[in-house]
Design a protein that fits this description.
Elements: H1 2-21, H2 28-38, H3 45-52, H4 56-68, E1 72-75, E2 85-88, H5 90-111, H6 116-134
Antiparallel strand pairs: 1-2
């Protein structure tokens, strides 16, 4: 039963993100790439592939689309021409920030429908899940 509920949560969140991203003309995988690049700290495309668990061909296609739209740039370091380092542009940072603010606002509106005890129970349940399933 728990596995079915968790799967339902995952699918529901994916759909919510798709709806949230629609006005920005972004897909959920494109958004995930923007988020991953933002947290990379000068990582390579290989690091990005590891972080997102995407295959190289899939990743390259998404990165090319984001680059074409002006959200990211790729460059090669002078000391190692084999590496390709993606980074967010100002436009990419702006749109990422805008999306995260909109997501947080919507999330807070939804959580606002719960009383304090319900919010605390939910928080505890999520923390428990993360402790046992993600951080092991």
């Amino acid at each position: 039963m728990l596995d079915e509920l968790l799967l339902k949560i995952v699918f529901d969140e994916y759909k919510r993100m798709a709806v949230l991203l629609r006005p920005y003309d972004l897909t959920v995988p494109e958004f995930e790439i923007l988020m991953a690049i933002d947290g990379l700290e000068s990582g390579t495309m290989g690091d990005l592939a590891n972080k997102t668990s995407l295959l190289s061909g899939t990743l390259t296609g998404i990165v090319k689309r984001l680059e074409k739209r002006g959200f990211i740039v790729r460059h090669r370091p002078m000391n190692d021409n084999r590496k390709v380092i993606p980074s967010l542009t100002k436009q990419g940072l702006f749109i990422l920030h805008e999306i995260l603010v909109a997501r947080k606002r919507g999330f807070n509106e939804t959580l606002g429908q719960l009383n304090e005890l319900e919010r605390n129970r939910l928080l505890h349940s999520v923390e428990l899940y993360l402790t046992f399933f993600v951080n092991t």
